[in-house]
Amino acid sequence: MADFDALVAGAGPAGCAAAAALGELGLQVLVVDAGMDASKQLAGELIHPPGVQDLTALGFAPLTDAGAQPVRGFAVIDERAWNTSLLPYGDGQGMALEHARLRRALSEGLEGRSGICHWPRARIVEICRSGLHGIEAAVRREGVGPQIVRARLLVAADGRASHARGLLGIGEARERLSSMVGVLVDAALLPHAGFGHLFVGGAAPVLGYAITAGLARIMVDLPTAKGVSELAASPELLAGLPRDLRQAVLEAALSGRVLTAANETRLPQSVAAQSAVLVGDAAGCCHPLSASGLSSCTRDARALQDAIRRYPNDFPIAAKWYAAQRRAPQRTRIALASALYRTFSQQTAEMTALRAGLFRYWGRTRTGPSVSIALLSTRESRMWIMAREYARAVGFGLSVLRSSAWNVGTAIRLAGTVLPHLGKLLSGALEDLRSASGRGLMRLRSRRAHRPAVAEPEPSRAPLSRL
């Protein structure tokens, strides 16, 4: 039997960030990881400036030490329409690093930290008990039989297909969107050095960024699940790329040196269950077009840290606080990813007008590029800002239609795409209002539950267990 304050399932970016955040509070943390071969995974590699700043605040060494490439912002390119918009970050640099090397750098960043223990090649096989006073879990380590671990808090950070989430019995809404193929090409083929690239002129969007000084990751969205063969059979999928880059991507794909992944939206029914919380992709994921997953997971770690700092003696209340704090940013992130994917993948007249309107919006307004990149990078997470900027882009899309062959039906359909975002804004505002009321009740109940008797000393805020 082993006792810890927190048991973290998963040693990827979300798990490492969460472990570091909890360790800074003086908690005794056990991190268990199944040890999958990360080099065979097409997963998060680009992290926006807010995520880089979170990692720095959590004490991790600069990712440049591991070979990460700086990212200055995004270049959005429509090769067919000769449109290019540069959206530079206004608050520092992002970083991009091959996923396996990123995991290794963050895992090494936990080594030697007081109170953090790492069991590699280990996984939770059973939740024996889960309640308000903590959890008991059976953990199997390689070469060792199952061992019972008791912890005041369980943190599920084991990805979008989270095994720990399933053991907790938390259901999810799941929507398959498309597939993604990732290849490596010469980084010099990217038109704008130092920028992430979003190519939107073909039948499907393509994401690209340098992950070493000489290599760039190119990720091609595939509307069906046919895999690499779809690229050769459907040349229009790469039509938005410059000719040399298009040829390099096709050659790399046909050579067999590819990574693949499913693009999904997954929304758990809850991200907090008594003494357990979900962080990172385990707490919800969306289409990777916005590359916001890594920044989202570091934000989750900081939000969890803040929740435990507020309620060090009541982890279930802290878990509820954490869930409330992340709800609005997550709602905006999911809505933005959905809007971007629909805009850049649907080949309808109204989405064609909206794409042209976006470039006009970025080129003709002073604040358009900065607000758009703030939303993309997760620096801006207010849903009303996202809804407002979408409506402005639609307005420019309508101006594109007016300057060409005006089609009333197309204009009505384009204007109608604003309505779902306004609906999400209103429902989100009501949800936030209820959440604020709930947080007030939580604070009141927590104060009452932990108010000492007159003759009693102030309760200790130190962790309850030690290694």
What does it look like?
The chain is an alpha/beta fold and 467 residues long. Among the domains are: 207 residues, FAD/NAD(P)-binding domain; 89 residues, D-Amino Acid Oxidase, Chain A, domain 2 (2-Layer Sandwich), CATH 3.30.9. Helices cover 40% and strands 25% of the residues. It has 13 helices and 18 strands. Strands 1, 2, 8, 9, 10, 11, 17 and 18 form an 8-stranded mixed beta sheet that branches. The protein has a 7-stranded mixed beta sheet with strand order 6-5-13-14-15-12-16, with helices on both faces. Strands 3-7-4 form a 3-stranded antiparallel beta sheet. A hairpin with a 2-residue loop joins strand 10 and strand 11. Helix 2 packs across helix 7, helix 7 runs antiparallel to helix 8 and helix 9 packs across helix 11. It is globular and about 70 Å long. The protein starts with a strand and ends in a 17-residue tail after the last helix.
Attribute tags:
467 residues, alpha/beta, FAD/NAD(P)-binding domain, D-Amino Acid Oxidase, Chain A, domain 2, eight-stranded mixed beta sheet, 13 helices, globular, disordered C terminus
Overall, the morphology is globular
Q: Please state the average pLDDT score.
A: 88
Helix content: 40-55%
Number of E-state strands: 18
Named CATH topology of the domain at 2-66 and 94-174 and 266-326? FAD/NAD(P)-binding domain
